Amino acid sequence: MAAPTLFILYNADASVMGKLSYGYKKLTNKDKDKPTCAACDITHGGLSLDETSQWKAAKADLLDSGAVKDIKQFHRDELDHEIKEFVQSRGLQFPMVLARNEGSDLRSVMSSEDLATFKGDPQTFMKKMRDHLGGPQSAL
């Protein structure tokens, strides 16, 4: 089976107001076991607007190894109709990771609860994603 495309969906909006709202929620969140956006923590280290070097390395490793074909990252307000309908029809909670193999339907591969267990660590995310997808292990 060909490697899937991953869709990382953030629990935040891309607009200026969305970023401000996320920042406020992140700073006032008292429940460290339920982060505002665990996917944001993994890819951006929380409040940064730029991806962390650790995420860039993990993403490159997943792509270079052939474990995934592509990784697409979207905010809630950037979703196309198909992804939005998939999420809404299944009552899924943001953030999450979806996958799709060429010629196949979307499927949920990691929930917000799953992402929270990684505590913002891109390498742990990458290892679990490879385990889930059955891909080769990384040298990281």
Largest sheet features: 4 strands, mixed
Mean pLDDT: 87
Order of helices and strands: EHHHEHEEHH
Strand content: 5-15%
Q: Supply Rg.
A: 15 Å
Number of strands: 4
Please give the count of helices: 6
**Cα separation of the termini:** 25 Å
Question: How is the largest sheet built, in terms of strand order?
Answer: 2-1-3-4
Instruction: Give the oligomeric state of the chains in this entry, treating copies of one chain as homo and distinct chains as hetero.
Output: single chain
Portion of residues within helices: 40-55%
**Gross morphology:** globular
Structural class: alpha+beta
How would you describe what is shown here?
The protein has 140 residues and is an alpha+beta fold. 43% of the residues lie in helices and 14% in strands. α3 packs parallel to α6 (122-133). The chain is globular.
Layout of helices and strands:
Blueprint: E1 5-9, H1 16-28, H2 38-44, H3 53-65, E2 70-74, H4 81-90, E3 96-100, E4 107-110, H5 112-116, H6 122-133
Parallel strand pairs: 1-2
Antiparallel strand pairs: 1-3, 3-4
Helix pairs in contact: 3-6
Task: Describe the structure in brief.
By secondary structure, this protein is α+β, with helices and mostly antiparallel strands. 43% of the residues lie in helices and 14% in strands.
